Amino acid sequence: MNILIINGPNLNLLGVREKSVYGDTSFEAYLEQLRSRYPNIAFSYYQSNVEGEIINKLHEVGFSYDGIVMNAGAYTHTSIAIADAIAAINTPVVEVHISNVYKREEYRQTSLMAKNCKGVIAGFGMESYRLAVESFV
Q1: Tell me, what's the pLDDT at 121?
Q2: How far is C-alpha 38 from the chain's CA centre?
Q3: Domain that holds residue 53
Q4: pLDDT number for residue 18
Q5: Mean pLDDT, consecutive 10-residue segments, the chain of 137 residues?
Q6: Which of 13, 57, 65, 82 would you call most buried, defined as having the most Cβ atoms within 10 angstroms of its Cβ?
Q7: Which CATH number fits the domain that encloses residue 23?
Q8: What pLDDT, on the 0 to 100 scale, is given for residue 13?
Q9: Residue 17: what pLDDT?
């Protein structure tokens, strides 16, 4: 099984950014835990702060992978283009958020992507990614 994890803007700073919201673990360290827990899954990881690069990656793998776990960061609330890219591909996408976006600012409570995703997982810290992976296995 091939699963791609895509992280959007500012998520390259996990482990050092707003630790009270996002924790103190880097995503790379967490990814190693996922790989250890699911040795039969081939995980790929992609992070970009650029909207168009995220869209290009969705187009690249969206017809060949078994699943995509996506934390689009702030693009979740603003990018019609990423939402359209998700709708255009065959690979199912699970939207994830580390924080509980429904306990935060009002603008974070709207996802333009969710209607095109298999599901949405929010508020379980880094474990949101594992829960998304579980939806594929």
Answers
A1: 97
A2: 17
A3: 2-136
A4: 64
A5: 97 75 79 97 98 98 98 96 98 94 77 97 95 97
A6: 82
A7: 3.40.50.9100
A8: 85
A9: 65
pLDDT of residue 137: 94
Q: What pLDDT, on the 0 to 100 scale, is given for residue 42? A: 98
Indicate left, alpha or beta for 53 from its phi (over 0: left) and psi (-120 to 50: alpha): alpha
Q: Which are the contacts of 6, defined by CB distance < 8 A and separation ≥ 6?
A: 46, 47, 48, 54, 57, 58, 68, 69, 70, 71, 72
Binding residues: 71, 77, 84, 98-99, 108
For the chain, how many structural domains are there in total?
A: 1
Angle at which helices 51-61 and 80-88 pack, to 10 degrees?
0
Instruction: State phi, psi for 34 to the nearest 5 degrees.
Output: -60, -45
Burial 97-130 (b: 16+ CB within 10 A, else e): bbbebeeeeeebeebbbeebbeebbbebbbebbb
Quote the pLDDT of residue 21.
62
Strands 93-97 and 119-122, by their bridges, are: parallel
Please report, in range form, the residues annotated as the binding site for substrate.
71, 77, 84, 98-99, 108
